[in-house]
Amino acid sequence: MKLVSTLALALAMTITATTGAAAADQAPVDGVPGPEQDPFIWLEEARSKEALDWVAKENERTLAALESDPRFAQLKTEALAIFDSQDRIPFVSFRPDGLYNFWQDKDNPKGVLRRTTLASYRTDNPQWEVVLDIDALAKAEGREWVYKGSTCLPPAMTKCMIALSDGGEDATIMREFDTSTKQFVEGGFVLDEKSQGGIVWIDENTLLVGRDFGTGTLTESEYPFTSRVWKRGTTIAEAEELFRGEASDVWASATLLRDNEGVIHARTAYRGVSFHESLYYVWKDGAWLQLDIPKKARLYGIVDGHLLVSTDVDWTVDGQTFPADSLIAMDLEAWKADPNGAKKTLVWAPGERQTKQGAAITGDSLFVTLLDNVVGKVLEFRFDDGAWRSREVALPDNATLGIAASSDTTEEIMYTVSDFLNPTTLYYTDGSTPPAVLKTSPAYFDPEGMEVAQYEATSKDGTRIPYFIVKPKGMTMDGSTAALMTGYGGFQIASLPSYLGPTGKLWVEKGGAYVLANLRGGGEFGPQWHQTAIRENKQRTWDDFIAVGEDLVKRGFTSPQHLGIQGGSQGGLLVGTAFTQRPDLFGAAIVQIPLFDMLRYHLIGRGASWIGEYGDPRIPEQRAWIEGYSPYQKIVEGVDYPTPFLWASTADDRTHPAHARKGAAKLKALGQPYYYFEDTTGGHSGGVDNEQRAKLQALQFVYLMQRLMDDRSGE
């Protein structure tokens, strides 16, 4: 594989700062590289003038190379048409005063919160009532407000705390809002210092607040670990502390155990002792009582007079063993009387290659979405005649199923049905009849001539790794097809088939193939699929991804010069490990909002919260696991990398733009070709409006076309 063209190299800026082997060889302090070992630590200051000047120059270079491509304008136009489409499904949530939807389009780039009736929603052109206009609010206040949702007081759900982010970062301010008057409440609750954390309504005059209350109230991961009871008419400084975790926790908070009618049955709390482990408590007899449940378990909710618990590990208690991924029930009144002594009953246990995904509780039932060998199912659970009974909901087979919305007080529920090639369909039922089609997304690309197949690759340790490929029918198996491979492989999150939308229009319709890999570390086959590839075994995730790439080449679907990879966040780390461990296997690599410097990740953004997934680089044994794959440290002189495209957001306070910045800076210092782009707003999820999202899509697909579809034999 040759390096990028002479023109791109001429555009690249060289860095003469101290770097390279001499700096890298210096011993880190406590296992953590400092300024002496890392000349690019200054890029960890998200908004310093020096860092932003560097970003501006990098953006100028990258945009000059990609926006000048004659395909860019067309791709952006096509993407924007999809994002702004007026006939896309307006997904809703059920509230007593209507169906609520948050909507963004060309006329409302920041979006509007709006509502309608079910009768109107059933029509092709619902009549919407605007409740809150974020564009108007941002203009009036001169802020780049991004709507981050609302928390409302049940059962009426008209008193809400609206969360707003300035530019898209996770940290928000919160203001009290009345949906009946459609106004912010004068003299109401206001949390005007941006912070992580949130609130729970106790009653109309009382909030339970977890925020940054000043020195000694944030964990190392920069999340709150105290909760206070804030009464109307007092200042937040006067709020009385109800619960306190420890600074060493990832996060900690008190909350309320409510049923579907809004009745509070208990005050509960939790301490996240790692990202995947928590200690749970209940307020009992004037003190916090620790619940005797596994650390890898959680309270699932109240259904028909029972408290349900979900466990991610086998749980042996009272002479019986509940397998990992089970649902267990306890009579609610018995649990309130004796939280650790209440009798436990199995509700559901997974079969082979099954795992539960989402869930919703309606007036009388629990609905759980399952994966059965990566195929979706939905089960309804009810407690009838002294026993738990389940039935499968009648929905299409061989598709990805989700619960889009559910009512707390009735049996109304909406489901999504999706696959790679068919537009998402929304189903509705009020519980009296089987679910029926309510709305269908428009087709955004022509699937004619495309097909989907599923294969398995064999990973380094012999484990079979499934993957899907969307490809042209009858494609020539000579390795000439440009293929884009993606995956995630972390935090027990499943990567599932869904309508390709912009990817279908901008890539597959233009002759490319698309590959989705189901890697260990994800949640496709339950908790064990995740737990077998974390911490000291995280390399298994990277091995799985590489194995899928090798299998694609072996079968003739593509070849290294035509194979690109893409992933964001944990997926960005995945792509970083892949192109640094096997640069010969890939022709392009899109590294989105990534983790990248894994020897300092716990010091950057919210990184310390993920030690449960990756390990702690301050501990020598664990540093050895991480150092074996950390992409930033694996970029070395003399290796021909596949000209990666790294991008990030200045407003990302979760993974932080420093990871992508430092990766680009190191490539630059070694004279390696690369592209770097940084959005000044957008947060961890990318663009905050459709224009921004379309631009990001176009930049990435132009890059992929240049690298994988264009003839580069002369380079």
SSE blueprint and pairings:
Elements (H helix, E strand, L loop, with lengths): L5 H6 L9 H4 L24 H18 L3 H14 L9 E3 L2 E6 L8 E5 L1 H4 L7 E5 H8 L3 E8 L6 E8 L5 E7 L4 E2 L5 E6 L2 E6 L2 E5 L15 E6 L8 E5 L6 E8 L5 E11 L2 E8 L2 E4 L6 E7 L2 E6 L3 E3 L2 E3 L4 E5 H6 L7 E4 L5 E8 L4 E7 L2 E10 L2 E6 L7 E7 L6 E6 L6 E5 L6 E5 L9 E9 L5 E9 L10 E4 L15 H5 L6 E5 L9 H5 L7 H16 L8 E6 L1 H12 L6 E5 L18 H4 L5 H8 L3 H4 L10 E5 L8 H12 L5 E5 L10 H20 L6
Helix pairs in contact: 4-16
Protein name: Prolyl oligopeptidase family protein
InterPro entries: AB_hydrolase_fold, Pept_S9A_N, Peptidase_S9_cat, Peptidase_S9A, Prolyl_oligopep/macrocyclase
GO molecular function: oligopeptidase activity; serine-type endopeptidase activity
Describe this structure in words.
The chain is globular. The protein is 20% helix and 33% strand. The protein is built from 16 helices and 39 strands. Residues 1-27 have low confidence and may be disordered. The strands form nine sheets. It has an eight-stranded mixed sheet with strand order 32-33-35-34-36-37-38-39, sandwiched between helices. It starts with 5 loop residues before the first helix and ends in a 6-residue tail after the last helix. It has a domain at 6-80 and 449-709: 3-Layer(aba) Sandwich (Rossmann fold).
